[in-house]
Amino acid sequence: MKPRIVVFTGAGVSADSGISTFRDSDGLWANYRIEDVCTPEALRHNRATVIEFYNMRRRESLTKKPNAGHLAIASMEEWADVTVITQNVDNLHEQAGSQRVVHLHGELMKLRSERNPELIYDINDGWEQSLDARAEDGALLRPHIVFFGESVPMFDTACKIVSAADILIVVGTSLAVYPAASLVFYVRDRQVPIYLVDPGEPDTAMIRNPLTHIKERGAVGVPQLVEMLRNEFAK
Ligand code: APR
User: Fold this and answer.
1) Distance CA 210, CA 208 (A)
2) What mean pLDDT comes out for the span 116-138?
3) What is the pTM of this model?
4) 215 C-alpha vs ligand 1 centroid, how far in Å?
5) What's the Cα-to-Cα distance from 154 to each of 30, 80, 87, 187, rounded to whole Å?
6) Does domain 1-18+65-105+151-235 have CATH number 3.30.420.10?
7) Ligand 1, atom 8: nearest CA belongs to which residue?
8) For residue 200, which atom of ligand 1 is closest to its CA?
9) Each residue's pLDDT tens digit, 44-66
10) DSSP 3-state helix, strand, coil percentages of the chain (rounded to 5)?
């Protein structure tokens, strides 16, 4: 039986591809205020600023490529049953070849109706959402992003996936944003090993499972970890 591996990623996994994290000293939240660009209130009262912020993120992301960390995660599918749960809105896991990717906080390359959350559209061309673009129900389009203060529709799905994991790998997240960070508590039991790849000090104080912290950046630490697991599990 293939081991079931769940990989839970944050902005740090894309840092080595040149995408800014949020809470590092050079991170996005050092230059923008969350309440100006990432809340439902901001979208209501400051629509142009919010749309422009995500247009810039989208334009920037189009030039980025997966790094060795994304690629190593995708490579595990040769010998393991792998699901990626990411907080990231970029599509670098998909570009790296990962087949099952759950986006907890939405996707940059999608827009949706402000009225009907089921009306979701892929952006197939370019990066720009125009301010007056509308969905087919007539409502304005908005970025398909989970703003602060909004519920996280994929959270229950993610919990179920984590609870079936034999191994949980966490990469590049400060574990500061809930409910996403609480996923680490949904492992089946206290024996499930948790590996963390992060050059910083994410908030792991509450984790009671066996925890191995590889204090490296993603492009270095993830391939090392994957090689170690491959030697242990690949037949
Ligand atoms: N490789 C791996 N990890 C890295 C690297 C790197 N090269 N550089 C930085 N990191 C780590 C940092 O040490 C930190 O632990 O990535 C983490 C980034 O943390 P945050 O900026 O808080 O990003 P994240 O945890 O993904 O944020 C969660 O917050 O604003 C929201 O919605 C946004 O999904 C995001 C959520």
Assistant:
1) 7
2) 95
3) 0.97
4) 14
5) 28, 23, 11, 17
6) no
7) 12
8) 13
9) 999 999 999 999 999 999 999 99
10) 35, 20, 45
Active site amino acids: 105
| Nearest residue by C-alpha to atom 26 in ligand 1 | 10
According to CATH, what is the number of the domain 20-63+106-145? 3.30.1600.10
Portions of the chain given CATH number 3.40.50.1220: 1-18+65-105+151-235
Ligand 1 centroid, distance to 12 Cα (angstroms): 4
- Mean pLDDT, range 84-102, rounded to an integer: 98
CA of 173 to the centre of ligand 1 (A): 4
> Which of these, 218, 1, 199, 231, lies nearest to 93 by C-alpha position?
218
Give the residue ranges of DSSP H helices in the chain. 11-15, 28-31, 34-37, 40-45, 47-61, 68-75, 92-96, 155-163, 218-233
174, 182, 214: residue to mutate for ligand 1 pocket, most atoms within 8 A of CB = 174
| Average pLDDT of the residues of the chain | 97
Around ligand 1, the residues with Cβ closer than 6 Å are 10-12, 15-16, 21-24, 27, 87, 105, 172-174, 176-177, 198-200, 202, 217-218
Please state the atom number of ligand 1 nearest to the C-alpha of residue 217: 1
Q: pLDDT tens digits for 137-149?
A: 999 999 999 999 9
Which part of the chain is CATH 3.30.1600.10?
20-63+106-145
Per-residue pLDDT tens digits for 167-195: 999 999 999 999 999 999 999 999 999 99
